[in-house]
Every structure is written in structure tokens, then in C-alpha cells.
Sequence to fold (672 residues):
Amino acid sequence: MRFEGTKNYVATDDLMLAVNAAITLQRPILIKGEPGTGKTMLAEEVASALGLPLLQWHVKSTTKAQHGLYEYDAVSRLRDSQLGDEKVREIANYIVKGPLWEAFEADTPTVVLIDEIDKADIEFPNDLLRELDRMEFFCYETHTLVRAKHRPLVFVTSNNEKELPDAFLRRCFFHYIRFPDRETMQRIVDVHYPGIRNALVREALEVFFELREIPGLKKKPSTSELIDWLKLLMAEEIPPEALRSDDKKKVIPPLHGALLKNEQDVHLFERLIFMARQGR
Amino acid sequence: MLIEFFLHLKSRKLPVSTREYLDLLAAMQARVASHSIDDFYFLSRALLVKDEANYDKFDRAFGEYFKGVERLPGLEAEIPEEWLRLLTRKHLTPEEKAKLEKLGWDKLMEAFRKRLAEQKERHAGGSKWIGTGGSSPFGNGGYHPEGMRVGGDSSGNRTAIKVWEQREFRNLDDSLELGTRNMKVALRRLRRFAREGAADELDLDGTISATARNAGWLDLMMRPERHNAVKVLLFFDVGGSMEDHVKVCEELFSACRAEFKHLEYFYFHNCVYDAVWKDNRRRWNERIATAELMHRYGPDFRLILVGDATMSPYELLQPGGSVEYMNEEAGAVWMRRLLDTWPSACWLNPEPERYWGYRQSIAMLREIMGERMFPLTLDGLTRAMAHLSRKH
Fold:
């Protein structure tokens, strides 16, 4: 099994190598990067490229490590016991399997995505050490050891909101998705909009990278925002000339709301444009 | 195989472990990468480096080790200018400093570069500090609040220094793990558990008694989970005389980040005035009004100020006394305002306690703080936390 990028996803060499190392050595891989650089999409694309089922586990601030393994629904069992349901004698009926259990049990290798692990509590990664290392855990309610039939390929994404513990990092491979350079960006755009007019893309990329250069932006526009913006530009049939700006008399790029998501950023941007127009 | 490489990385202060080294060997054996140096570089980086902040360090270490195998582009040792500038402060004699005024900066920089190059030739390991420089505090060259003003003493003459001051500030590195454990234990005293938020835990005792009262008919009781509900505001003094204390501050910062769930941190310089900032690289563009913070964070926050409180007394007493800009109100006014907003507060001072008596500004701040100034040692931290955990 090797991952070589897909039709819909442009992977750089270092990214492919990191993914392939994780596949070969059957280790989890931690992906970090700016929001919108395709961290989550990577797991989806790898799963589809390798033809493996994808199990997603989206982590929230209240998520516990246990939720990924299983949950014991004590409340419904108590209720059933009052109603005299026969089901109640078998505790396994009240065990709800989580994505990791499903993956361990599957008859084929699977891809597991643990999305945005940094959103959870500080202890969350520590609680998963043994599970991700040995790929097994113990279910106390049924006294069974659940062991992976096939070690799943685990993708972990993080937005860097919290530090991850050392012990956890030691068990993962790591890749930081850099913001794509102009060349890679061109390839990404080509993948998403094969028919797009060349001139428009060139102008749009120009505007886009200029925007990213503005100091003090709260949220810099990222790849996914560029893709959305291009879609809008095409839908509105905006001519490439409209994007071109000569230095003296700058115009606000059309539909810039797709690129700047923060009110303060839009203000800042408009102020800068205004100043440029004053010829200062 | 590759043991030397592994040890080399270790000696360059990269946090690599044996386990990761074995992983790398396994990956080589499994032929994950081809035999080109590029592939090996990507592979070893993915397996050995677990934080993008260390990428640069790794690049340099890798370049050093594989020099001659194949030149990797972009690995020539570039000495950032601000290091040089800070280093001059450490290395220059007073006569040279005087010369600085006459010569002008550019010429002196050139001379200094030459001197640095000579030094490298004489000591074999002379370039080492460049590699490890990222984490070592520079410019602890006996800086005094007034000492910065090379070009003259009056406050109107600071323009030149302002420029290099701007580059001197760097964000505190909170990745320091070593030595923070003791601090975490000390910080742990500031725990206050409370049940807050959504009721999602089964309250067994409550359920039993409610069910009994209900004549055996099941009555479920839920309750929220216990959290450490303490909220902390941290203000760090950075730059200037605090350069000497960077390490201990980083440790404290790292420990705090791990310990407190509700932690907000801000930076200031010398004394808190009308604005603070969150990112030292952009401290001039992204300032946050102190008044806004007072509205945003309620009195249930505990305020911890970290700084050496070493400054000119004018900073506290006079409007316009700040070393870096024209402040409309004196530092003391703002300090009192902070204490009114967050009555539970303390000041941690990295300067040894025995020197406190010699600095006027420290004595003044202690008075403003109502003697709630503690040294930034384990003992001082423990005392401070005990103080903060009292009810106010």
C-alpha cells in the first residue's frame, strides 16, 4: 500500500513520505497546519486512494477518550430493568461501540481520523496512549479484551490550540502542512477547477498572496477560502481585468468577503485601500 | 547505524528519544524512503521531530551533520541581525560603546561581524552557540533601564534604540518540559474544584435516594462534572531587564499553560499601562486596551503579574514616564486600577528577594501591591498560590 496523492488532492513529496512511513510502520500520524490547508481532507483522500473504509471521530471540548472506545448506557439499562425487558440480562446490549472499537473489529484494515485532538481536555491524548500503541483495550463491563484484527491507519489532526504531551508525540509520526507556495497553489487550483481561465487564476493568486502579506490580519485567507473565492468569481463571471489593480488607484477586489472572514480584517483592508487611493 | 546522527541531534537539543530512533531504523529497513538524501531528510523529520517549532533546529542540525554528503539549499548559517546587535551589548567594552556613537551603527556592525568571524576560526566549537542560540537568552549584558540609552540621557533621544528594541522581544517558549514539574506541583495549590456546566455524570447517591423516595420507581439524578474552576490572568514583563530571567519565566509559563484551564496571558514592558499585547512579534500593531480586559474578565479571575519591577521610578509616578511611549497616565494609576478590578492578585519577581530593598521601584510596587510580591522561586510560588487561594 502506498499513497501517491489523488486526483482531488495535491500532496507534496514530504507529505507523501510521512504518510507512507505511517502506512508501512503502522503508526499513527499527527498532522498539524494552518486551518484550511487540508488536514482533515488528507485522511479522506488517503482512505479513498487506498480503498479503505474511513471511520471519523470528531473531537469536541467535552469529548472523553472513552467515547472513542465504547460507552456503557447505564441509564437505558436501568429503565429497561424496571420495564422487565429480557434484554437487560445481557450487558453487551448496552455497550455502544465507538469508532476505535469499530476499527479494531473490522475485517479489513481501516483508516481512522481523530479530528482536532487539541479541542479536548489536556489529559485526552494521554488516555489514548495504550490504545494507539498496542491497538487494544479492555472493556470492563463485559470483561473482554478488544484487540485490533488489523492495525488501523490512524490520522490525528491538531490546530495547535493545546500542547500535546510528549509521551503521545513519541508514538506518532508528525507532519506539518506548510502553507502551499505559488506553484503548489496553482496545482491545487488546477485540480479543483480544471476549466478555469488561466488569466483569472493568475490574477486571483496575485491578489490572494498580496492579501496574505498584509500585516496584522486576524485570520489570513487559506487554501479553502481561495477555492471558494474562485468558485464565486467564476459563478459571477468576473473578468480577469477587474482583479488587476494599478498601484495608484487600487480597487477593492470583488467578493472579498469570501477571503476575509473577520469584520476587523475587512475594515483594516478597506482602510489600507483607502490610504493607497489617497496616493499616500 | 546512524547512531552518530542520532547523538548529534540530541547534542543539538532536539527532543529525540530512543524509541523514535528505532522507528527510523525500522522505516529504513522497510525501505520507506529511497536512497536519496532528500527522502531521508523528509523521513527522519517526520519520525524524529514532533513540533514544527523544532523544524528550524532540525534543519540546522541535519545540515551540519550531512555537510559534504550533499549540500542542502538554504542551510548556510545566517546570523540574524538582532542576535549580533544584542551580542554587541555583551561583548563591547565601554570604549567601544563610546566609539559606537562616533562611528555609527553600520560601520560597527561590520567590525563586529569581522570579529565574530575571527573568533570562529580560533575556537573550533565557536559556531555552536549559533545552533543552540534559539533557546538561549541573549543580551544579558548588564542592562539597566537607563543603560539602553547609549545616545544620551534625555528621554527625547531614544529614537535609534527604539528600532532595535523592537526586535529584541520574542515570545516565551512554553515547550519547556524540564524542571517545570515542581512548578506545576506548586501551582496545583491553586485548585478550586467546582461542578459547572452541563449535567452529564450520573449521580449515584442522588439517584439511590431519589429512587427510594419515589417508592422504588427509578428517578435518575445527573450532575455536572468536577473541574478545576480557577481562572487566571497572567501578565508577563518582557524585554529589557527581563532578558536575564527568560528561562525561569518560560518554565513558569509552560507550567501555567498545563495547569490552568482558564488561563489568559498578556505581555507588558516594565509596568502595565493602557495597553498590553499577546504576541511580541506584533506588539506594535496588535495592542489590547487594558480597560477592555477589565471589562472582559470578571473579578473572579486571579491576577498574577510577573516582572522584575526594576524601572525608573518615573514610570510609576509620572504620566509620560514609560521608556517606550507617551503614556497619558502614570503606572501606579494603572496598577491600582488593576488591583481594584481583580482584588485577588500577586506579583512574582524573579529578582532575588535580598536585592529588593535596593531598588526604589520595587519598594514602590510592593507598597502598591500591599506586600503581595513574592520571589519567583518554588517557595515564593507556593506562598503566592496560598495567598491567591484565600477567599477575598
Notes: Chain A touches chain B at residues 13-14, 17-18, 20-21, 24-25, 27, 29-30, 32, 62, 74-75, 78-79, 82, 122, 163, 166, 169-176, 215-216 (CB under 8 Å). The mean pLDDT of chain A is 84. Strands of chain A lie at 29-33, 54-58, 70-72, 95-97, 111-115, 136-139, 144-147, 153-158, 173-177. Residues 39 and 181 of chain A are 17 Å apart (CA to CA).
